[in-house]
C-alpha cells in the first residue's frame, strides 16, 4: 500500500458509528475500488494469452501493464487539483466512465497496439477512482471515522490480489480473454447510476495551479525511455535506432523535468522534499523493492501457464497463496508501524521475500507445486510487512503542509517503479527465451524461425501440437530451457530485493515522534487542505 493525497473537505461533526447515509456513499466507492484493483490483477494471468492471440513477444504484451501503470502515475497529481476545480462527484463519475469505456474498447482490440492504447485510457480513469473516492468518503463521514472507513475500503484491497487472478483465469477458460474487460461494463454502468443517486451534490472551489508542463515532460519521457528498452529483444542490439532513439529522447525529457521541477511553486513532483533524509531513504527502499517485486510478480502466472501447461484458472488459483500471506501480515504491520521503528521490522519482512524468491531462482520444468505455493505464501507475508511501514515512516518525517506533496511523490514513485519493473523483467525474459536453439527448416506463419523453447511453450498451450512432433525430447529440451529462462530472470529480481537491504539499513531504528501535527495543512500560502489517502 502507498499513500496519496487529494483535497480534503471541511470536517462534519458525526458520531463514531457508520450510519446508513455513510454506508450508501461507501458502497459507491468500494464498487469503484473493486473494479480498479481487480483489473490490475485480472490482467496478470492473461499476458501469455495475449502473446498467442496477437503473436507478440512477452516484452511487447507487458506494455498492457506498463501503459496502465504509467497512466496511473500521470493522473495521481492531477486528481487533487481536478477535484477542487470540477467537484468530487463529477470527477468520480468521469473516472468511472473513462474506466468503463476503456474496458469496452479493450475487449474490441484487434492488435496489441490497440489493446495497449485502450489500457492507457483505462488507467487514466482507474487512477482517479481510489483517491477521489476516499475524498468523498472522508467528506461523508468526517475525520473521526476514518479508521472505520479504511476498514471498509480495505476489503477490495485485500481481496483484489487473491480474487483477481482466479476471476481472470476462470473467465479466460470458460469464455475468452475479452471477458476480463467486458465484465467491467455492467459493473461500471451500475456504479455510474449508483453514484448519480447516492453521492451528494458538488461544490467546486478554486484550487492551486497545476503543473501541466511538468506532466508533459515526465510522462512521455518515461514512456519513450521504457519503449526503447522493451524493443531491445526484437532489435537485438542497443545500436538499433529503434532502441537508442526513444531511450535518448525519453532520458532527455526526464532530465529536463528534474531540472525544471525545482522552479515552479507547485511542481508536479516536489523533488525538494528529498532534502529530508528519512523520506529519501524510505522512497529509495520502496522504489528498488517495487521494481523487483512488481516486475517479477507478472512472471509467476506466466511460468505456470507456459512451462507447466496449466489452465488460466489453475494459474490464478496457484497465485492465491501470495494474497493470503499479505492478508495475514498487512493488519499486523499496520498496528506495529506506530509502535515499533520500521528499521527493526522491515528487514525481517524483506528476508521473507528473499527466501521466497530464492525458490524461483531454482526453477525447473517440474518443481514441486507445494514448494512453489509455500514460497508464494512466504513472499506474501513479507510483502504485507514491507510497503505500509515504509510509507508510514516516510510520511511521519513530514510536517503537516508537506504531507500532500510527499504522499503524491511516493505514490508516483511506486507507479514508476512498477512500470520500470514490468518493462525490465519482461525484456530479460524475452531476451533469454530468444536464446533458445532454432529448429532447422521450421518457421511460423510470419516466416520467423521457431525455437525449441517457443515450440515447447506452444505445445503446452496446444497439446495437439505435441502429437505432431516426432522427437519428444525436443519438447523436453525446450521446456527445460524455458524454465531456466524464468529462473535467470528471477535471479535478477532476487538481486534487486537483496539490494533493497542497503537503503533499508538506514531506516530509523529508534522511535521518533511524528511531525505531521507540527503545523496544519494549508499553513503555507496557496496550499489547499489535504488528507493522506491509502491506495493499493
Automatic annotation (TrEMBL):
<dbReference type="InterPro" id="IPR020846">
    <property type="entry name" value="MFS_dom"/>
</dbReference>
<dbReference type="InterPro" id="IPR004638">
    <property type="entry name" value="EmrB-like"/>
</dbReference>
<feature type="transmembrane region" description="Helical">
    <location>
        <begin position="281"/>
        <end position="300"/>
    </location>
</feature>
<protein>
    <submittedName>
        <fullName>DHA2 family efflux MFS transporter permease subunit</fullName>
    </submittedName>
</protein>
<feature type="transmembrane region" description="Helical">
    <location>
        <begin position="486"/>
        <end position="507"/>
    </location>
</feature>
<feature type="transmembrane region" description="Helical">
    <location>
        <begin position="178"/>
        <end position="200"/>
    </location>
</feature>
<keyword id="KW-0472">Membrane</keyword>
<feature type="transmembrane region" description="Helical">
    <location>
        <begin position="58"/>
        <end position="79"/>
    </location>
</feature>
<dbReference type="InterPro" id="IPR011701">
    <property type="entry name" value="MFS"/>
</dbReference>
<dbReference type="Pfam" id="PF07690">
    <property type="entry name" value="MFS_1"/>
</dbReference>
<feature type="region of interest" description="Disordered">
    <location>
        <begin position="515"/>
        <end position="536"/>
    </location>
</feature>
<keyword id="KW-1003">Cell membrane</keyword>
<feature type="transmembrane region" description="Helical">
    <location>
        <begin position="116"/>
        <end position="137"/>
    </location>
</feature>
<feature type="transmembrane region" description="Helical">
    <location>
        <begin position="91"/>
        <end position="110"/>
    </location>
</feature>
<feature type="transmembrane region" description="Helical">
    <location>
        <begin position="369"/>
        <end position="388"/>
    </location>
</feature>
<keyword id="KW-0813">Transport</keyword>
<feature type="transmembrane region" description="Helical">
    <location>
        <begin position="21"/>
        <end position="46"/>
    </location>
</feature>
<feature type="transmembrane region" description="Helical">
    <location>
        <begin position="243"/>
        <end position="260"/>
    </location>
</feature>
<keyword id="KW-1133">Transmembrane helix</keyword>
<dbReference type="GO" id="GO:0022857">
    <property type="term" value="F:transmembrane transporter activity"/>
</dbReference>
<keyword id="KW-0812">Transmembrane</keyword>
<dbReference type="GO" id="GO:0005886">
    <property type="term" value="C:plasma membrane"/>
</dbReference>
<feature type="domain" description="Major facilitator superfamily (MFS) profile">
    <location>
        <begin position="25"/>
        <end position="512"/>
    </location>
</feature>
<feature type="transmembrane region" description="Helical">
    <location>
        <begin position="149"/>
        <end position="172"/>
    </location>
</feature>
<feature type="transmembrane region" description="Helical">
    <location>
        <begin position="212"/>
        <end position="231"/>
    </location>
</feature>
<dbReference type="InterPro" id="IPR036259">
    <property type="entry name" value="MFS_trans_sf"/>
</dbReference>
<feature type="transmembrane region" description="Helical">
    <location>
        <begin position="345"/>
        <end position="363"/>
    </location>
</feature>
Amino acid at each position: 500500500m502507498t499513500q496519496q493525497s487529494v483535497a480534503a473537505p471541511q470536517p462534519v461533526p458525526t458520531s463514531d458509528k457508520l450510519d446508513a447515509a455513510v454506508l450508501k456513499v461507501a458502497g459507491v466507492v468500494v464498487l469503484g475500488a473493486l473494479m480498479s484493483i481487480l483489473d490490475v490483477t485480472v490482467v496478470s494471468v492473461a499476458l501469455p494469452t495475449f502473446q498467442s492471440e496477437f503473436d507478440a513477444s512477452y516484452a511487447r504484451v507487458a506494455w498492457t501493464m506498463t501503459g496502465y501503470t504509467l497512466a496511473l502515475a500521470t493522473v495521481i497529481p492531477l486528481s487533487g487539483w481536478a477535484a477542487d476545480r470540477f467537484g468530487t462527484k463529477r470527477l468520480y463519475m468521469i473516472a468511472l466512465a473513462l474506466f468503463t469505456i476503456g474496458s469496452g474498447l479493450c475487449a474490441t482490440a484487434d492488435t496489441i497496439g490497440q489493446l495497449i492504447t485502450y489500457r492507457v485510457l483505462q488507467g487514466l480513469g482507474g487512477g482517479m477512482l481510489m483517491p477521489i473516492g476516499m475524498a468523498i468518503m472522508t467528506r461523508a463521514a468526517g475525520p473521526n471515522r476514518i479508521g472505520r472507513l479504511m476498514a471498509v475500503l480495505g476489503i477490495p484491497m485485500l481481496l483484489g490480489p487473491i480474487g483477481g487472478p482466479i476471476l481472470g483465469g476462470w473467465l479466460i477458460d470458460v469464455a475468452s480473454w475479452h471477458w476480463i474487460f467486458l465484465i467491467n461494463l455492467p459493473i461500471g454502468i451500475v456504479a455510474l447510476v449508483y453514484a448519480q443517486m447516492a453521492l451528494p451534490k458538488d461544490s467546486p472551489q478554486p484550487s492551486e495551479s497545476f503543473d501541466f508542463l511538468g506532466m508533459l515532460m515526465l510522462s512521455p519521457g518515461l514512456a519513450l525511455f521504457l519503449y526503447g528498452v522493451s524493443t531491445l529483444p526484437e532489435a537485438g542490439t542497443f545500436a538499433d535506432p529503434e532502441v537508442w532513439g526513444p531511450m535518448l529522447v525519453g532520458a532527455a525529457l526526464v532530465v529536463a523535468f528534474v531540472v525544471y521541477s525545482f522552479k515552479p511553486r507547485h511542481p508536479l513532483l516536489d523533488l525538494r522534499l528529498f532534502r529530508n533524509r528519512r523520506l529519501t531513504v524510505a522512497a529509495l527502499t520502496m522504489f528498488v523493492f517495487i521494481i523487483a517485486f512488481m516486475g517479477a510478480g507478472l512472471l509467476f502466472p506466466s511460468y505456470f501457464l507456459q512451462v507447466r501447461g496449466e489452465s488460466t484458472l489453475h494459474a490464478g488459483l496457484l497465485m492465491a497463496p501470495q494474497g493470503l500471506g499479505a492478508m495475514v501480515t498487512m493488519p499486523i504491520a499496520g498496528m506495529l508501524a506506530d509502535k515499533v521503528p520500521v528499521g527493526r521490522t522491515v528487514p525481517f519482512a524483506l528476508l521473507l521475500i528473499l527466501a521466497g524468491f530464492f525458490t524461483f531462482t531454482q526453477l525447473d520444468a517440474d518443481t514441486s507445486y507445494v514448494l512453489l505455493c509455500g514460497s508464494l505464501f512466504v513472499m506474501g507475508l513479507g510483502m504485507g510487512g514491507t510497503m505500509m511501514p515504509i510509507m508510514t515512516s516516510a510520511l511521519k518525517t513530514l510536517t503537516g503542509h508537506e504531507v500532500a506533496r510527499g504522499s503524491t511523490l511516493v505514490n508516483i514513485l511506486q507507479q514508476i517503479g512498477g512500470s520500470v519493473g514490468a518493462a525490465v523483467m519482461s525484456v530479460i525474459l524475452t531476451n533469454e527465451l530468444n536464446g533458445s536453439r532454432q529448429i532447422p527448416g521450421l518457421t511460423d506463419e510470419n516466416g520467423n524461425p521457431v525455437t525449441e523453447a517457443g515450440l515447447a511453450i506452444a505445445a503446452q498451450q496446444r497439446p495437439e501440437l505435441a502429437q505432431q512432433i516426432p522427437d519428444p525430447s525436443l519438447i523436453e529440451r525446450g521446456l527445460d530451457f524455458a524454465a531456466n529462462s524464468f529462473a535467470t530472470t528471477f535471479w535478477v529480481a532476487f538481486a534487486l530485493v537483496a539490494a533493497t537491504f542497503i537503503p533499508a539499513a538506514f531506516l530509523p531504528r529508534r522511535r521518533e515522534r511524528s511531525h505531521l501535527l507540527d503545523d496544519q495543512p494549508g499553513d503555507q500560502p496557496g496550499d489547499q487542505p489535504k488528507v493522506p489517502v491509502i491506495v493499493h
